[in-house]
Amino acid sequence: MTTVTVTELDVLASLLRFDFIGFAQKAGALDPGDPHYGRAVGAAFALAVRRRFPRGAAPEEVSGYVSGILGSLEAGAEDFPPAFLEGLVAEGLYGGDASGGGRVDPETVLQARLVLTFRLVRELGLDVGGQRELLAEAARRVAD
Question: With contact defined as beta carbons under 8 Å apart, do 91 and 38 qualify?
Answer without folding.
Answer: no
